[in-house]
Amino acid sequence: MTHKEKDSSQNVKPPVQNKNGFEKEKIKAETAIGLTEQQIATLRNDFGEYSDKVFEIYRKERGKEPDFKEGKAGFWDFRTGYLDLYQYGIAWFGGDKPPKGFFDRQSIGSPEDYFAIKDDCGKMKEMISGLLSQGIFEIPDGHDANESDPSDYFIWLHKISKNDAFKENLEHAVCELLLHELDRDFAPLDTLPHMKKEEENLIWNEEWHMKQYGKPYTYNFSERDSLHDVTWRLGLDDPQSAEDKSFAAYVKAELGKTERPITLEEFLDRFAGSKEENRKAYETGEPAKRYKLIHYSETSEEFRSRLREYYIRHHATIRAVKEFSPQFYTLMGLLNIVSSCGGQENGLAEIYPMLKKKAEERFHKDSPLIDYPLSQRGLYSSILTALSWVQKGSEMREFWLDGIQNDASENRLFDHIHGLLMMYKTVEERQAEIPEILRRLSGRMRELDSERKQNTMLFPIEYNLLESLSYHIGRDCFEDRPFTYIDKEHATLYFLRSKARDGAKYSFEFDSFTQEGKSNASASFDLASNLFTGHAAAVEAARKYIDENGYEVSDKVKVAALEGTNKGKSMVDGSDLAGKYEGAIKLNSAYFAFRFDPETEELLLTSSIDRGLRVGGEDGWEARRLGEKEASERINEINKLTKKNINGAEEVSFMSLDSLAEKIRVKTASMGATELMFEPLHGLGDELNSNLSPAIAEVIKARLISLGDGMWTG
Known about the structure:
Elements: H1 37-62, E1 72-77, E2 81-86, E3 90-93, E4 96-97, E5 106-107, H2 111-117, H3 121-132, E6 137-141, E7 144-148, H4 151-160, H5 164-182, H6 192-213, H7 227-233, H8 242-256, E8 260-261, H9 264-270, H10 275-283, H11 286-290, E9 292-293, H12 301-324, H13 329-341, H14 352-360, E10 370-371, E11 376-377, H15 379-390, H16 397-406, H17 413-421, H18 427-431, H19 434-441, H20 445-448, E12 451-454, E13 461-464, H21 465-477, E14 484-487, E15 492-502, E16 505-513, E17 518-526, E18 531-534, H22 536-549, E19 551-552, E20 558-565, E21 581-587, E22 590-597, E23 602-608, H23 628-643, H24 657-669, H25 673-677, H26 684-687, H27 693-706
Antiparallel strand pairs: 1-2, 2-3, 4-5, 6-7, 8-9, 10-11, 12-13, 14-15, 15-16, 16-17, 17-18, 19-20, 20-21, 21-22, 22-23
Helix pairs in contact: 3-5, 3-13, 4-13, 5-13, 6-12, 13-15, 14-15, 15-17, 16-17, 16-19, 17-21
């Protein structure tokens, strides 16, 4: 591949006044950290429009000008990520390198880089390969750590720069480096040197565990644990090799023989809370239905011996992968750039023939995941993702379909499905492929309908693989990412096309897809009678939608959780309830206490009883409930803070929806966009009003009063 560097110099005017108010006489060499006025003008020309928007966001979020130290200030916003702001009016990528000292932050890049590489393809390649070869950086963050990917720097430069010639130079540099990386030899994985060390470590653990506890070592899981957690802790939840797949099936079969419902003793031992409350919970019968535990002590000697051999081999592989991975860092970074910036119309499409060749050769398909400080990424998966963005026409169609049907890695199914759908520009063309996707998946539905656990930098996430695949199909085939439901028995996908509410009646229209094609299905729900009607599977889809989202009382407000009682005294003011209902209600993302009088139908709410920021929530109608104890504790905590005058806390008291909406508007008016993103009350101030009281009251009467759904029994 040959490429003549394009001159990225444009008709650059010297800096005068710009939107950030940086006048020409204010731009001095010392504040520009060595840049000339002409260089600053070039930066303003290529990055000025973006920088002006960032500085505007900064002023709105912080209410002041940046506090520059040595000509630079840091800034994070969820819309921009971390940026460095320079005194001469430029916002620049703010990703970090590992610090030299505890407080010595190092940026991955700076504006000076731009002038070193923008017109010199050789220096550009040198800089790209130099940074990417270091892999993803681990950046200390207090007691925790984050990852910083240097490939994101070049992605940022490509997306933000307005200089087309520079972008073309960057695209060609990436392609030439990729050609080299994909054509070189890599050392194979070698576990042998680590086997003896791992066996020695295991012997020490076994001896210490027997001496300390008087029972055999159980390889990172408890003697009585769930089968799902055991396979995850052993690294067998998504085995890649045929050998590991076979062993995973053996482990599940052998441990499954010892699996049985949790006993009262086990339940009391494993779950927090008072013994009395947990004993009552167990007597309901729900824990025994929900939780099953394996019993390792009942397994055979043959099983324990084979598990021991696997454990040694598995941990030797982990050590070997740490030595194996760095040789791929440059390649992985380049593939990430193509995945983020690639397109059929730009220069990165030049790499398509080589990526196609490597994908068809199954290049490193069976290699282990590439290891980084806090995460792992698949090499072959990265090739497939990059290929999906630069492929031309539909010549890869059969390749993608074959992968959907036959790729042994269940997680790579996402890559194959995405690759197939990205061949097309319109959602209509993509939807036309859904029946064929279902045909190719038909023989795998049962194995895919299983729970998975994925490690993240914060916490493990549990998900159903088949449902997750369905969601991704909907995301790529529809413009608005619709609610998705899969009828697993009949292998039919349902995507919510429209919904409507008429008083207490809800109607749903779905696009449904089978192996034969597309059709329509509908369902309705009457809140007052608690009856669903319509096509059987569409009814289940509508039921799941309501369970996940709650009961909509307007286009933008929904009752997401509801619970309470009409007995005893008020948890808010201590008065006798005397037939009135009181409890906790969740509207959208925020929790409130409510009081409802069924005779007058008066509905009152308190201010929010949330704890801290919005960080996500449970999916199920029942799972979102707080419980009587938690709701009462929240109210008591807020009232204690009020008495101590901490954080502007206000005593919990009842008020009308109109008064509540006004309080929310006042509270959120001064919040910036980033703060609002995590604020449970966000948006409710403009949507709540007394006109919604009848609709909310309908939900309370139908669910809590008529059905006893969420009724407190304490």
